[in-house]
Every structure is written in structure tokens, then in C-alpha cells.
Amino acid sequence: MGILTKYGSKAVFLLSVLWALTSSPFVNARTTDVRYSVLCYHDIVDESRPLNRPIAIPKLNEMSEHSKPRQYFSQTIELSTLITHFNWLKANGYTPVSFQQILDAQQGKFNLPNKAVLLTFDDGYESFYNLVYPLLKQYRYPAVQALVTSWIDAANNSSITYGDVQLPRSGFLTWTQLKEMQSSGLVEIASHTHNQHRSVVSNSSGTKQAALLSPAFTHNHYETESEYKKRILDDLMTSSASILKNTGKTPRIIVWPYGQFNDVNVALANQAGFTHHFTLEEEQHNLPETKRVGRLLIDEETSLESIQEYLTENTWQLPTQRVVHVDLDYLYDANPAQLNKNLDVLIERIHQLGISTVYLQAYADPDGNGVASALYFPNRHMPMRADLLNRVAWQLATRSEVKVYAWMPMLAFDMGKGYEYVTDTRTLRPSQNAYLRLSPYSKKNQKIIKEIYQDLGLYAKFDGVLFHDDGFLTDFEGPIKQGQRTDATMNIEAQSKAQTLIDFSHELAKIAGQYQRGGVAKFKTARNIYASVIMDENASKWFAQDLDSFIKAYDYTAIMAMPYMESEHSITKNQANQWVAQLADIVLKKTNSNKVVFELQAKNWRNQEPIDNTQMVQWMQILDKKGIQNFGYYPDNFIENQPDSDTIHPFFSLKNQGR
């Protein structure tokens, strides 16, 4: 019996569609270095047959195939769709390979074909044995099955907690089935953790995040780093031991639930004996020697065109940055009800603006002096004004669908007495005209700041960090030559101080980034720079900053494009427009604009009035006409709708930007 005949006429129709797609003009797969791609599947259903089990229902005791409609999870696909994918791979010259063949290729024992594909199936559903395994044998396609071992270990008549629903144990594989499939040589058994395929409450507001990614908050207690690490290591070792006990083989692969993991998880997985870890990163294909393996997540809505784009590395992401810089001080309120209202207003506003990124204040500065007097996350060294950062960052990421950068000081922490602060060499006191800053040359200060960033990364989840504009040392601060100083001497001093600050910021980013989703490799950095440093060649030595160094050091340099703040005297609107245009021209002569973000001022701090909405639009138009696409503004007064969202939306939103 042929494969198409066996699985029904619907598959025949779908196969006819795929033949038409094979002639579409996509880029051919690269062959300069042989790599492999990975497809990630979950549960499979056959709509042409009676369903022998519920898919997802609220309570175990309410299960009835006759009384309940079929309810599928988002990654569940029909059997006919899977057959279409298998046939499409075959028709287009793709060769599914085993994980062992990939390891052999790494060791020079096997040559991967130019269109090598690894098939993976997550969660251990019984459909893998009853529907997928027969197909694997028909096609001779190898695959990886990733198990949540606590689900497989569960008693026959028990239920499995999957998110907010209960599933019957019968909906999952048995160890007998797994051992049979492993013995066939077609199926590699991987771990999907023992009991971390779930969320945990991560803060006092009840925010739920992936158990692997976040320390748990239970009984008014934040899981410490050591407790967090122990929970995960114990789980990974338990899962590995269960697979070894029941299959006779130690698993080599850990597949991260939800694709969420950090560098701490990877180190613990290595400690537990796993050699490779599978993600849901789809940006590029994998070399045989790659330990961090990216995959494309497949669901019923994933088109063949999308699969082909991934397989040919023709995927695309909108590169433009549109940024709103948000003060948590605006959002915070001692009244929880008002705070919740403020949060809802912010989330809806950011969603409607259709931007890419939010720079979110992580420190408290209620007096507006630019110095952190408290923090918005649990930490060892400063007061916590409220456990707000993680909650708001997560809401912005999941509800407003933006990337969130934690906006943090590099040095401007008011730790009180007993610490060495940056001083002016002329007065031997901190400057009255600059932020109060901890000296970056003090080992004690470095340790404190690093620990603050460690707590930031551990207890809040975000995509990157924006270093505040406090990262400067004037020409009379830091190590300087005594006596007469020439311009050459001052330039050398400024370069040395600038590099010290850059190196320190890199350490801080690495410390915070290790706890974030995807780890340091995915963690983004941005840093504020004063416009005067760019517009006046002498200013670099006044602040120990320069644009070229920032461009090399960070993913983005956020230029403070604030004409009314930079000008010593009052200027007209026309002069402000000319200033923005001049700044843009200078930047374009110096660097690629893709790595800079122009931060426009939304408030005139000289008169404490908001910038006119019309002028804000004019500034955006000036930048756009010059080919500058990365821009945003600070501050965002979301409570009073300033800037006016309807006015700026046509010139600011990314929602209407196509490929």
C-alpha cells in the first residue's frame, strides 16, 4: 500500500499544492560550509479517524470523546500536513539525517549532504508512536523525540498537568514504546527536563515565567541563586537517570521547554552530562560541531513557503528600531489599584504605537537628579522601591510585543557613606554640576555594582541593557597627569578613561545577560552618548566618550538628540530643527546609521513643558528623509498621552512597514 493511499485523499490534494511551490524562486541553500537545519514538531492528529483520546480539556473526570469537541494546542498539526512536509522534503532534495550522523560528521566519519535536515518531536505524545513512527519507517527518516520524563514516569491512570489543563496519562508514550523505537535505530531519545516544562510565579505580583528561566517566588520568598541552580541541576540529573534506567542509554540532548533557557541552564546541563542543547532559534543553520542547535517551530499555520524560507536561510526580520524610553517613576504609585491602571495604560499605548523597543527604567529616581536612590527589583545592596521591573518588562514583551532594555546607571548609585565617589581633582570633592557617581577605579565599588547587575539579571527578564548617560569622566575626573597638560596628554587620558568605562560596561552586560533568554549571545547592549561629543571634536576629552568607540563596543548607541537641552541659551523651533538636521548629517558622515538610535526629547526641561507634537513629527521627518530609521524619544508621559499617540503614529509606527 502506498503512503498517500494509506493516509487518505486529503494528503493527495495537499501534495498537489506542494508541487506548485517547488518552482518558486527562493535562494538556494548555501553549500560553502555544509550545515544542517532542524524542524521542531509536537503533537500529531489524524482527522480522518476517531480520536482515541482527549487532546486538552479542563478536568480529567470530564473526559468524554462523545461530549467534548476536539481541542488542539497551537503546535498540534494534522497527519496529512506532516505527510505533506515529508513529501516536500523528498521532492526538493532534502535528506533527513540522524543525530548520530551529525556527530559522525563532526568527527570526520560522515559527510553531511548539502540539504541535511534533522526532524525533532517534543513532549512525548503517544501520537509519535501511533502516527509518526510508522511514517518514519515508511520513509526511512530518523528523528529525535524529547521527553518530559515525569510525564512518562507517571502512573497509567493518572493525569498530566500541562499549563492550566489536565491531560490523561494515556496521551503520552510509554517506556516500552520508546525502547522499541530506540532499538529501531530511527529514534534518538532526548530530555525535555523532568519537571520544568511549566511556569513558576516569579515575583510578588504573580507574574508567571518559564521555570528554567526564572527563580521562583513562593511563600513570600525569592528563590536564591543557589536554590535556583540546585532545582534545575537536580531536575536535569533526574531526567537523565530516568532515560538511562528505562532505555539503557544516557541522553545526549537537552531540549529546552518553550525554547527558553539561559547560560546558567547550559552550564548546569553540561554538568548533568548533556553534550548538546536544542533551542527554538531559527536565525541560521547549524554546523556539525555546534553544541547550541537552533530549530524552526512548526505549527498547523506554518506554510511550506515559511519552511522553505528557513531551509534556504531566506528568513527576514525588520531591522528598524523605534524606541520609547519609559520611566517607571511615572508608573509607580503607592496605591496598587492606581498602579495597575497606570500599567494598563502603558501596555495599551505601547501596543498601539507599534514600535520595536522600550528602554525601561530599572532604578528609582523620584527626585529626578539622575542618580539611583533605590531599585525596582530585588537586590542585596539598595532599597527596593517596588518589585516592578520584571512585571512591567514581561507585560511589555508578551502583551505589547516589544523588546525591552533595562535602563540602568553604570556608576550613578547613591550608596551613602563609606564608598569612594568620582571627585574633581581641583576640589577633591564630587562635582556639583554632574551626577554623583561611584568611582570605577575602586574594587569595592566594582564588586557592589557587579552584584547589583547580577541581581538585576537574576530577578528580571528582558532583552538588553541601556547604560545611562552617567558613564562619563570629565577632564578633571579620574586618573590625570598632575601639572601642565597638553591636548595630546588630555586625549590620551580621555581614551584610557573611555576604555575603562567600556570594559566595565561589558562586564556588567555579561553578568546580567547570563540569566536572560538565550544568554549573553542574544543579549543586546545600548549606551547613551551626549550629542555634544559628536558635534564638537573637543568634547571627547571633556567626557571620556566618543562615537567611534561606542559603535564598536555596543549593539546600539543611543544619541541624546535633544536640542533644547544641549543649547546654552533659548532657541527657536526652527533653530532646533536645524540642530537635529546638523546632528544627523554629522553622524551619517561618521558611521553606519544602523547602529545608532536618535533619542529625541519629548520634554523641554528648561521650561518643564512638553515638546509640541508638530515639532516632534518634524524631527522624525527630518531623520526619515536623511535615511535614518532608528529613532525614538524620551520621556514618554503615557498618563497624559504626551507625545500624542495619534499625531506621531503615522511617522513613528512600524506596523505599516512591509518587507
Structural class comes to alpha/beta
CATH architecture of the largest domain: Alpha-Beta Barrel
Q: Looking across the biggest beta sheet, what order are the strands in?
A: 18-19-22-23-24-25-26-29
Q: What is the terminal-to-terminal distance? A: 45 Å
CATH superfamily of the largest domain: Glycosidases
Beta content comes to 15-25%
Keywords: Signal
InterPro entries: Glyco_hydro/deAcase_b/a-brl, NODB_dom, PGA_deacetylase_PgaB, PGA_deacetylase_PgaB_C, Polysacch_Deacetylase
Pfam families: GHL13 (PF14883), Polysacc_deac_1 (PF01522)
Domain NodB homology: 115-358
Observed structural traits:
PGA_deacetylase_PgaB, signal, alpha/beta, elongated, disordered N terminus, PGA_deacetylase_PgaB_C, Poly-beta-1,6-N-acetyl-D-glucosamine N-deacetylase PgaB, 659 residues, TIM Barrel, 8-stranded parallel barrel, 22 helices, 6-stranded parallel beta sheet, 29 strands, 37% helix
Word description of this protein:
Keywords: Signal. One of its GO terms (molecular function) is hydrolase activity, acting on carbon-nitrogen (but not peptide) bonds. One of its GO terms (biological process) is cell adhesion involved in biofilm formation. It comes from Formosimonas limnophila. Residues 1-29 form the signal peptide. The chain is of the alpha/beta class and 659 residues long. The protein has two domains: 30-311, Glycoside hydrolase/deacetylase (TIM Barrel, Alpha-Beta Barrel), CATH 3.20.20.370; 322-531 and 559-652, TIM Barrel. The protein is 37% helix and 16% strand. The chain has 22 helices and 29 strands. The chain has an eight-stranded parallel beta barrel with strand order 18-19-22-23-24-25-26-29, surrounded by four helices. Strands 1, 4, 5, 6, 9 and 17 form a six-stranded parallel sheet that branches. A hairpin with a 2-residue loop joins strand 12 (217-218) and strand 13 (221-222). Helix 2 (9-21) runs parallel beside helix 3 (79-91) and helix 14 (443-459) runs parallel beside helix 15. It is elongated. The two termini are 45 Å apart.
